[in-house]
Structure formats: structure tokens, C-alpha cells
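Human: I'm a chemist; would you kindly supply sequence and C-alpha cells for a protein?

Assistant:
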Amino acid sequence: MIWNTQSNAVGGSAGILQSARRTVAGEVFDKLHADIVTLRLLPGAKVSELEIARQSGVSRQPVREAFIQLNNMGLLQIRPQKATLVRKISNREILNARFIRTAVEVEVIRKACESATVAHFNQFDQNLKAQKKAARKNDADTFHALDYDFHRLICISADAGFAFSTIAENKSQVDRLCMLCLTKKSSMLELIDDHSQIIEALQQRNSNTAIDLARSHLSRLDSTLKFAREEHSEYFED
């Protein structure tokens, strides 16, 4: 395994799941989380607590704490007396995560239709421009981080920033699946179009349309899952 010390530069999603107070274990978690969700560490790969501690210049305790947190998130599989593995993708858990995320995000969008301000829409505009730039460069890592920021901004515009921790935690379950398909520029452009339409509906204060668009956006997971299972069956556990 190659321990990527730069992984947290693009793995912005990991930091969302941490407290504002940084710890050594939190930093190790961020790096590992980013490497897992961006597929620098592939499903089924072995990870060594000792190796990561040595290459990171830390003791084994913070690495162990990060391993436990990632195990609880379903991203690592800690096996007593055996090597720890990057957990393979679970079809069932992806669909469960999508269910929870949809329920939360629909209510967030409903609130955003009422409370989003001009300042919020300026932030959305900047984010969408950055998404388009990443798509032109076919930069999946940057696009992935911007996608997280887009959904975080929706929560902020709804005065429901607290909800993003739930969205982010469940989004982590599907990140690897999405990264398998974000290698295509066309996939990024489809998501950008979804995002743009959602923001347009928010600007028009049309909550029914915005919610329908959000549901349609999240339903793209079905075709993504089908494609990934056909092309990369070795990465799935069920």
C-alpha cells in the first residue's frame, strides 16, 4: 500500500465528518478516508496499522482510533488476528444510505426554497463555475470535493447546516461507487446539469420542482450502481 500524504487536499468530505478541533487521529482519519473514497485504496486492499503509523510519523494509537472510526462507517473491515482490509462495496448499504439521504435532503431543499438569499445564490454560482472547470479538465477528485461543497451550501442556505453531517456520512457510502463512474466527463456534466436545475428551482422558490429534481438527481444512483457492478464486480461484497 502507498500511503498518500497529500490525500486530504482533495478529500474535503472527510473533514466535514470531524470536529473543528483537529487531533492526530483526526488527521490520520482524513487521509485514510480520502484515499478510500477516491479509490487510491481499492476495495479489498490490505492496510497496515504499523505501516501507516511509521509513514505518518505518529504512534499506533491515533491510527488505531482512525481505523475504528472507518470500520464503524463501513469503509474498513477490522479482522482480529488478521489483516485489516478496505471493505468492499455493499449494494444493500448503498441503497440504505440513499434512502436516508433522500429523506433528509428533501426537507433541506424545502427549507432552502424559503430561506436562500442572494448571497447564497452567489456562492452556488461560484461552486457551479468551479464544477464546470473541473469537468473540462476531467478532474474527478476536484469535482468530487466540489459536489460535497454544493450539497453543504444547500444545507447552509436552508439554515440547516447540522443536517450536512448526516448527508455527508451517508454520502460516504456511495462515494467510491461514484468515483468508478466519474472518470467520464459526460457523467460530470450530467451532475452539473442536475445541480444547475435544482438551483434554478430554488431561485424561483418552487419547492415542488426543486424536490422532484433532487429525487431525480439521487435516483441516478441506480444506473451508476448497475454500471459499476457490471464493470467492477470484484469490488462488491454482495
